[in-house]
């Protein structure tokens, strides 16, 4: 008999009832150190006082009115994002998947509105993850994501990761956009080299193609800059954001330049819940903290400390780990043992990590993690690794 919750997840036998900072409490009372942050969602940890206050205050005032009306909290968050980024305009969604849907629509509408309706193809890359909707799985293109869901949405071209020559050769008169994660998350914590991202921007400018960045997982301070593309010194035309922007509250957004978004006029897109007062009130509180250069400097300091300790861990367990990869507090350990088994060994040490492709475990701690918690997390990883080492 099918369970009442649709069984689309292989869930760990854990049930958490409380969270505080970087810690989760299981129903049986055990405390787990959380180096997953709800897959990079709880950027400021669990139950951050500023976020709790913002949500509670707004909940006592107004929850929902729909986008038929002006929403003050939505305007305030849009203004903050525009002021802090390349963007001229923002549309709010409930998730990264919804942000992907709009990004695809926006790129195609841009060329339709410009009198070039034949420019519909979007170039994407092996190992990508952009969500679970029809457009998002078509963009990813992998058999794991698409098997059994044919016919797929057409208009996506798939290329090898970080192959500039293949990218240059693939751009044609039907290309509308390039869609890429500056750091692949689900794909195994694979940062795109700065020169590749710069090269993409140059190709887009040369051919009049839009650059769409998926910063759902790598954005919102995760790499030590507000957005990961800032390390390469480039700007996109369209950017997908979610996860950390709500600090745990469901919230996403599409940021765009005025030129890229010009075709998105009244009636071309919508959302019942997107940009609701609750989500945007929390988003404003998140931005107040994450956009502070001093906070981001602290993220970089903590990231350096964590990476140094992880390099030592790899050296101490060469039969278990192969390498450390990633940027900021978006790090991955490439494993020589099955990553799912190492994640389970971490659970036995009351430690939360997240598996990814390419036999990697992801370390995506809250950005507020302390030095003591970093040391404790690596110590627990060390004990988990020892469980995997043949005696």
Describe the protein.
By secondary structure, the chain is of the alpha/beta class. It folds into two domains: 16-48 and 293-388, Aspartate Aminotransferase, domain 1, CATH 3.90.1150; 50-290, Type I PLP-dependent aspartate aminotransferase-like (Major domain) (Aspartate Aminotransferase, domain 2, 3-Layer(aba) Sandwich). Helices cover 37% and strands 19% of the residues. It contains twelve helices and 17 strands. Helix 10 (293-316) packs parallel to helix 12. It is globular and about 65 Å long. It starts with 15 loop residues before the first strand and ends with a helix.
Oligomerization category of the chains in this entry: single chain
CATH architecture of the largest domain: 3-Layer(aba) Sandwich
State the order of secondary-structure elements, H for helix, E for strand: EEEHHHEHEHHEHEEEHEEEHHEEHEEEH
Radius of gyration: 21 Å
Low-confidence stretches: none
Strand order of the largest sheet: 4-12-11-10-7-5-6
Using the coordinates above, name the CATH class of the largest domain: Alpha Beta
Give a topology summary.
Blueprint: E1 16-20, E2 23-26, E3 31-34, H1 37-40, H2 49-59, H3 72-84, E4 89-93, H4 96-113, E5 121-125, H5 134-140, H6 143-146, E6 156-159, H7 164-170, E7 175-180, E8 183-184, E9 190-191, H8 194-207, E10 210-214, E11 238-241, E12 252-256, H9 277-290, H10 293-316, E13 321-327, E14 330-335, H11 339-348, E15 351-352, E16 354-356, E17 360-363, H12 371-388
Parallel strand pairs: 3-15, 5-6, 5-7, 7-10, 10-11
Antiparallel strand pairs: 1-2, 2-3, 4-12, 8-9, 11-12, 13-14, 14-17, 16-17
Helix pairs in contact: 2-9, 3-9, 10-12, 11-12
């Amino acid at each position: 008999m099918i369970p009442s919750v649709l069984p689309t997840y292989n869930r760990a036998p854990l049930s958490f009832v409380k969270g505080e900072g970087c810690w989760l409490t299981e129903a049986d009372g055990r405390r787990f150190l959380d180096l997953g942050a709800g897959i990079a969602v709880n950027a400021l940890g669990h139950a951050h006082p500023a976020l709790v206050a913002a949500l509670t205050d707004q909940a006592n005032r107004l929850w929902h009115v729909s986008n038929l009306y002006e929403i003050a909290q939505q305007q305030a968050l849009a203004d903050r994002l525009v002021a802090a980024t390349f963007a001229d305009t923002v549309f709010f969604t409930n998730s990264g998947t919804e942000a992907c849907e709009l990004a695809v629509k926006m790129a195609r509408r841009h060329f339709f509105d410009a009198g070039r309706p034949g420019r519909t193809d979007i170039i994407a890359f092996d190992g990508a993850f952009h969500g679970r909707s029809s457009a998002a799985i078509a963009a990813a293109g992998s058999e794991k994501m698409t098997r059994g869901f044919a016919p797929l949405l057409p208009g996506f071209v798939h290329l090898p990761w970080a192959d500039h020559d293949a990218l240059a050769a693939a751009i044609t008169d039907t290309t509308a956009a390039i869609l890429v994660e500056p750091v692949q998350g689900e794909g195994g914590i694979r940062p795109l080299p700065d020169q590749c991202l710069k090269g993409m921007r140059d190709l887009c400018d040369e051919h009049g193609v839009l650059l769409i960045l998926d910063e759902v997982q790598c954005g919102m301070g995760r790499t030590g800059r507000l957005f990961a593309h800032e390390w390469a010194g480039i700007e996109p035309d369209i950017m997908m954001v979610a996860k950390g922007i709500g600090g745990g509250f469901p919230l996403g957004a599409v940021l765009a330049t005025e030129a890229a978004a010009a075709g998105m006029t009244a009636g071309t897109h919508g959302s019942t819940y997107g940009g609701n007062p609750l989500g945007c009130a929390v988003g404003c509180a998140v931005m107040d903290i994450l956009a502070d250069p001093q906070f981001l400097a602290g993220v970089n300091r903590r990231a350096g400390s964590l990476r140094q300790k992880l390099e030592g861990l790899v050296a101490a367990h060469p039969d278990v780990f192969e390498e450390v990869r990633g940027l900021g507090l978006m790090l991955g350990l490439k494993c020589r043992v099955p990553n799912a088994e190492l994640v389970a060994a971490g659970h036995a040490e009351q430690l939360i990590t997240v598996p990814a492709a390419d036999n990697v475990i992801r370390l995506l701690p809250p950005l507020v993690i302390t030095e003591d918690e970093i040391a404790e997390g690596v110590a627990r990883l060390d004990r988990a690794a020892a469980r995997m080492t043949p005696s």
